[in-house]
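Sequence in, structure out. First:
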Amino acid sequence: MTDFNSLLATDRGQKAHPIHLVDKANFEGWAKTRPAEDRALLKAHRFDGKAGFAFVMLPRKVDEFEVVSAVHNVDELSPWCLAKLAESLPEGTYKLATGEPGPAALGWLLGQHRFDDYRSKTDDAERGARVLVTGEPARIDATVRLADAVALVRDLVNTPALDLGPAELEQAVRTQAERIGAEVKVISGDELSSGYPLIAAVGQAASKDRAPRLLEVEWGNPDHPRVTIIGKGVCFDTGGLDLKPASGMRLMKKDMGGAAHALALATLIAGERLPVRLQLLIPAVENSVSGSAIRPGDVVKSRQGLQVEIDNTDAEGRLVLADALARASEREPELIVDFATLTGAARVALGPDLPAMFVNDDDFANDLAKAGTEVTDPVWRMPLWDAYDEMLKSDIADLANASNTPMAGAVVAAMFLKRFVPQGAKWAHFDTYAWRDQAKPGRPKGGDALGLRAVFAVLSRRYPRP
């Protein structure tokens, strides 16, 4: 894990390379104040102040220089407007020439995060750190916690399934729980089979060393409002007997991306010391193929009591979440949030950048959408359309786990989950991609946190620290 603490420093007048931020509106006025040689260099680089993460280094004395960088709006910095600089500038200490980085400090940190666990040589590490000086020392710890949480998601999702099965995911949960002072309970074996039959059924084809389990973490004062965070922890998804094609299986190491989001959110809640009684639930399984695999047409009784017919073994994520939701309902939480890389249909509808958000409370949904815009972590509300509930009808059981039509796949999956949500609880379900197909400044190709910061922003406001 990258040591983000060392990349932000309190301004104590230390020597630092100035960074001038300009936008299309103010560039010409700013350029007129610069020496002639600066203007000539900017012209040679065809730098015109238009956004696009462009920047130019302006030389001064030996080993001294200033930086000018284009942003969309100098008055409203985004989290990512400094990320390209953090990725590209030489080792050293930097400071904005005017103003403070504010939310842009997050991109400065994440622009220097790399997942290099499987590289024999890492040239970037030899470049050294780029430190940003800020006059807002009170924001440093919170920004570092956010960067740590995002990096945790990225690192877990990027780790190959060979090295991140249910047992290793359990260890990752234990590591974070120990760090935040939380209690961990692991349900496995006969206790899982009898108490959480859907989780057990999905994972029953895996080898013994990759056996299924339910990870439950408790943190906080029992007298505080109970909040439950759930994450889909399918460490690899072959599709089961409804086997995925090779192209569909290639990225399935990321099918535990929901669990990574949930764990990261738990660390943020505890790190900020929000006054809640937190319950974290992660069903950790591998959806494999063997003689003991669950079959299409099988019927499994859920923890809640509903009998579920397995229409499609590749619709396994909603099965493990259903038993986790049933467990959550037994503790009567006032709010439930679940994250899952659940359906390809959500990606068809909204693409890779927008997590599909399903919420059973309009005010809660509006808060989440607003926060997503404010922190540049957008989410998009999708309907819990009751009429589609009939698509889950089974001829022999209480309901099926999938429909026979390709239409409204993400909505139908959410309607399945809704059957297991306790009455009276506010619930938000995020069908997130947890992946970035194309790199952007501060956001490399690979695992990524989508929707995490939006949810945390809402929880921080709903449960403010005293």
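Second:
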Amino acid sequence: MKQITSDVYLMKMAQTDSRAPQVNVYFLKNEKLLIDAGPDNYPCYLELQQNLKSLGINLKQVSVVITHHHPDHVGLLKYFPEETAVYADSGVRYYGTTAYLNAIEEQTQQLQILGIPPHAIDQIKAQLQKRFLPFLENVNFKDLNRLPVSSIRIHRLRGHSPADIVFQKDNFFFGGDLILKGIYFNVLLDIDPVNQKLCLLNQEYEQNIKKILTTFKIQTWCPGHGDSMNLSSLVKVNHKYQKLRQLIHQRITQSFSFSDYDSAVREIYSYFPRLNDYFYLSDILTVIK
């Protein structure tokens, strides 16, 4: 555990997959507030308890806020006391329901109609199914708008997921995975809990990143993975993302002439037969959509 300020502490939690990056979990001591819960990894839960104990705090005294629904940020809730209050977007619970599993089946069938190859659809399906967390139905979720902590401002955005929450304390911003250094394929295919359809979030991601960089008075950005960044670093990271996205877009438009989305997908996949990783796919689809 690393102390960032007199109030803010950082805990880096390892995922069970050693290839996956460590997850940043932040604890605000004065507010007794945990920002994100970390991955489903029981040793991390024991470590969390020990870290809180060293600060003279019992886990039962703590509330939790969630930046987004992905398993590496909510997985540890599986082990929390039942009475733990968890403040999150109202859609988070959806990812623990059979309705979510049904939506995955329905939406991947639509990708077949578009002509996306079976191996690519299998990757999408596998990634979405990893986000099915049945224990979420038993979590003590509370209305995020009623978070009883006056020192925290809540910013509701979209882009990395259907519902990204940025938490602000003074000029510190806890932004989940919206801006991550070194990760430029960051707009992920997901199921929207409202309409239960695949959402392509590139345009909203662009708008919200612009909002973050131009209207938030950022001193320190505390991301869900990696090191904290100042505003200048955030601008550089976004510039690299934009440059890469433009290169992809130029390659697509220079190589093909197509009049509709369906034919574009078919042509791109005949041209990029090996570029079928889920993360690349997410970005390509959002670029051409």
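Remark: Helices lie at 42-54, 71-74, 98-114, 118-130, 202-215, 231-255, 261-271, 278-288.
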